[in-house]
Amino acid sequence: MFDNLKGLIWMDGKIIDWSSARCHIMTHALHYASSVYEGIRSYDGKLFKGIEHYERLHTSAEYLDFKVPYKPEELVHISQKIIKKQKFKEGYIRAISWCGSKVMTVSHNNSNVHTAIAIWERPVIYDDKIHTEGIRMNIAKWRRPDPRTAPVHSKASGLYMISSMSKKSSEKLGYNDSLMLDYENNIAEATSSNIFMVIGKKLFTPIPNSFLNGITRQIVIKIAKKMGITVCEKAIPLQFLNEASEVFLTGTAVEVLPVGIIESKKQKWMFRPSDITNNIRKEYNNMTRGND
Q1: Which of 152, 205, 227, 255 is least enclosed by beta carbons within 10 angstroms?
Q2: Residues 197-232: pLDDT tens digits?
Q3: 37-74 confidence digits (pLDDT tens)
Q4: Model-level pTM?
């Protein structure tokens, strides 16, 4: 039960017992999704890309038209303090900022804003079979929205409603995750991770025009280019999978995760993690455990 873990949470300027972190039922974010969050990792007790994540938290809040009341540098310092205090080796940091219970109308004008940081030990653990065969995915029925209809470049909690539904549906069918298409039926991403495809010796990934340009995604692009791999960002139709030999996902939670199968109602695509996937994953592991 995540509401009853042992540990500490920082909330609105104070470090408190984990079980004491509460918000009221009339919290605006609970009713109207006025909240943004970040998932961050720490390796060997050190926050990884903390400033980048907390700057994005601020940007996400700006998209939703409210302000995080703490500077990115303050949030990095607070996170590192909790990591050190609780001796986390591979911690997972969930930072969230949300509109509180001061107002209860559709508008969050004049609302109070809360911010909290929770950290728990969460190493990335996949068995060898996942790295040699990859995960299994289906195609989600939900689409990533048109950027004219939602703040798609924010890490806003409300945008993850269709992710949660799609992931649950895929797991009930025996898959690990779902591939989500965009509003034009091109490949977008997984439910909470970006996607890359290897065709020939080139790496392809969708342009993030209807979803988040992930920090891990940006790191992987830099790694690939440093390795001399051509990276192509473009609109990618589903049929593009016919040409792909390797597919992998990227994200803070999954790091670099190979995909073995993507299946629709009419077609099944199979891939095998090979040199490009494995070399990028190895370099990412070296970077995170070395905290470059």
Answers
A1: 227
A2: 999 999 999 999 999 999 999 999 999 999 999 999
A3: 999 999 999 999 999 999 999 999 999 999 999 999 99
A4: 0.95
Active site residue 234: no
What is the average per-residue pLDDT within 5-30?
A: 96
Q: Which domains does the chain have, with CATH numbers?
A: 2-121 (3.30.470.10), 128-290 (3.20.10.10)
Q: Which of 178, 179, 186, 183 is nearest to 234 (CA)?
A: 186
Tokens matching residue 128: 């060898």
Mean pLDDT over 115-143 rounds to 94
Is 291 a residue whose pLDDT tops 50?
A: no
